[in-house]
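User: Some background: our group keeps a shared notebook of sequences we're curious about, and every so often someone picks one and asks for a predicted structure to add to the entry. Today it's my turn. The entry only has the sequence so far, pasted here. Could you supply the structure so I can complete it?
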Amino acid sequence: MIALALLIACLGLLGLAAFTASQRTKEIGMRKVLGASLTDILVLLSKDFARLVGVAFVLGTLVAYFAMNTWLQEFAYRISLAGTAWVGVQRFVMRRFIRLLFRISAPNTRKS
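Assistant: Of course. Here's the predicted structure to add to the notebook entry:
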């Protein structure tokens, strides 16, 4: 049930990002023609919802960490979770997100 909720949430976010990018295709093209850098285009595309996604990701990660730690303590052979693993997961996800933003803003917009 939780996986389905996460899938629906991710699809909604993907739809929002695709809709925003498609609505701003001509604006992005004009900004590129006028000399905007790739960083300017990335900020333009991501500033609306990147902060909210980041806060939700951090809060979700913390809740998942504490829930898993509590759940794992109930077993006979207890293990502890390393906090550095969670930081590594957060770094990995943020790098993938930044790569995705570069991929979205890099294509040639001559077709628009």
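Suggested note for the entry: The chain has a mean pLDDT of 78. The longest helix spans residues 50-72.
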